[in-house]
Amino acid sequence: MTRSWTLPLFLLSVLGCPSEGAWPELPKRGGDLRGPVSPPPLHDLVREHGASLGIRPQQVRAIEGLAEAARPALNEAHRDIDRARRVLRDLLQETDPSRDAVSRAIDDLGAAETRLRQGEISVLLDILSLLDLQQRTALARLGSTSSHGPKRRRAPPPPPRPPPQRQPE
Question: Can you give the pTM of this predicted structure?
Answer without folding.
Answer: 0.60
